Amino acid sequence: MESSSERNARHKKAMQRKKEHVDQRIAAATVDKGLVVVLTGNGKGKSSSAFGMLARSVGHGLRCGVVQFIKGQWECGEHLLFSAHPLVEFHVMNTGFTWETQDREADIQAAQATWAHAEALLKNPDIKVVLLDELTYMLTYGYLDADRVVQALTERPADQHVIITGRNANDRLIGLADTVSDVTDVKHAFNAGVRVQKGIDY
Ligand code: ATP
Ligand code: MG
Q1: Which among 97, 84, 173 has a CA at the least distance from the CA of 132?
Q2: N or C: which end of the chain has fewer CB within 10 A?
Q3: 3-class DSSP state for residue 63?
């Protein structure tokens, strides 16, 4: 049987090999650029991850913009925190969920008026991070023209990061993104009858 010192020596050797591999990969990553990060999928954690990156960015003193394309029923903690922050410009679409408004024309008008704020942020080189929360639905429902969205994203300042959230991200968004995470729904408390919880859900 392997002694504990043999086991430790084997572990050390394996970790050395791993470190060499990781160091090589770190040394090979030399590019700095503005990223498009897409957070999609049916699981919980898309918007909260996006606002986590916003918190990091604000922590570093970066100027940021947020555009929320769907206004929920609840006053979100992220809005309460960041809309009052001097580094953050925060816009929220003034309609609720599309199944609540049930008015396609009004939704389209609201989406386009809200998109105008996103376009202005995507043209502003002083804004280093743009968060487009729940944008994917605007493309799925056809409220915004995909060409117009793709054009604004591709023509933005080269060092500007964009974070996009929402289920069923359009293939064109996935195509132009640098980082895409598909959040899987393994389990959600809501399905066990638990209502939305302050701090965790909104
Ligand atoms: P979060 O803002 O919590 O990161 P999300 O952005 O991934 O969630 P959305 O589809 O935008 O998810 O939904 C927002 C709200 O719906 C949150 O209150 C969240 O807890 C809840 N939610 C997210 N995923 C699920 C799910 N699979 N089943 C039920 N409720 C969910
Ligand atoms: Mg969300």
Answers
A1: 173
A2: N
A3: coil
What pTM, to 2 d.p., does this model score? 0.92
The two structure tokens encoding residue 91: 């816009």
Comparing 184 with 103, the larger pLDDT belongs to 184
Tens digit of each residue's pLDDT (9 = 90 or more) over 89-122 = 999 997 766 676 778 888 899 999 999 999 999 9
Q: Whose CA is nearest to atom 20 of ligand 1?
A: 201
Cross-strand pairs, 65: 89, 130
Whether residue 74 has its Cβ less than 6 Å from ligand 1: no
- Domain covering 32-192, topology: Rossmann fold (3.40.50)
Residue with the two structure tokens 């922050």: 85
Domain limits, the chain: 1-30, 32-192
43 CB less than 6 Å from ligand 1?
A: yes
